[in-house]
Amino acid sequence: MKYNFQILSILLFLFATVTQSAAQEWKGLIAITSQTINLRTAPGSTYTILVSIPAGSQVEVGQCFKAGEWCVLKWNSETGYGAASYLIAKKDGVNKTVKDIYSAYWKNLLPPVKKVENKALAVYGDSTAAGAGNSSIPTQWYSLLYTGYTPDRIAYRNATGGQGIADMATGVIADEIHRDWLTIFYDRKNTGETADLWLEQIAIAVTHLQTNRFLIMPQVAYADGAEDANNQLILDEINTRIRATYPNNTFNAAEETAFLSDLSSSTTRSDGLHRNDVGQAIEANTIRAWLDNKGW
Length: 296
What we know:
Elements: H1 5-14, H2 20-24, E1 29-33, E2 37-40, E3 49-53, E4 58-65, E5 70-75, E6 78-83, E7 87-91, E8 94-97, H3 98-108, E9 121-125, H4 127-130, H5 141-146, E10 155-159, H6 165-174, E11 182-186, H7 195-207, E12 214-216, H8 229-245, H9 253-262, H10 277-294
Parallel strand pairs: 9-10, 9-11, 11-12
Antiparallel strand pairs: 1-4, 1-7, 2-3, 4-5, 5-6, 7-8
Helix pairs in contact: 6-7, 7-8
């Protein structure tokens, strides 16, 4: 793709004070679009377009992801994700793509992420991830999971009851410490969340991981067939699309069916939705068997 460097040079000259110090202070980096680019809801060319930004527009650049391929951009009143290869900024007196500046910035200025043992485990989600409904912390599913190994796995949990899938994704984005840990996402859709929204936000969360070792747990309905019929359709759609999109990172159809069947009775629940000690043990045992089968 050819850049219109004449236009870019004129516009870059107008804010020539954007120098190396601005690049080092990464948040607030100013760049110019080298061609018309689409501002999207998530980092990827398949996500919804919020607005098209004309060539030669000035944008503010936030954090970048996918090895610098996509960055958070602010343009006028809009904020979204744009392709960094079509953003030009001045670095050391030279016009460079934001992707190149980003790569150098993180390689040279930031300390390396501290590595932990391969078996470290991170959990993100809502009250299901938090193990709500059981009698005590030692019998919560994630406690049973990480203490079931010898030695115990290092574990981290970021789970808040009632939060939406977008809140969970935001938490993953903000977490720069555990991105290379084996990760479990366990988040049941909230009222008003569609399958499209849920899948879009889980994709954002996955994008920010630095590992391909992650498990997306299926949606679990209320016990004894008490789920609202319309909501059940959405849960089923989410589960079907998870299997199709992430076949290596979720239960296969047979595993999912067995898991949901094991949790279908009210004898596994404390309130119809959240699992009691019996249900938590089913969750822990099923997840461990899946992880062990993957060699994770």
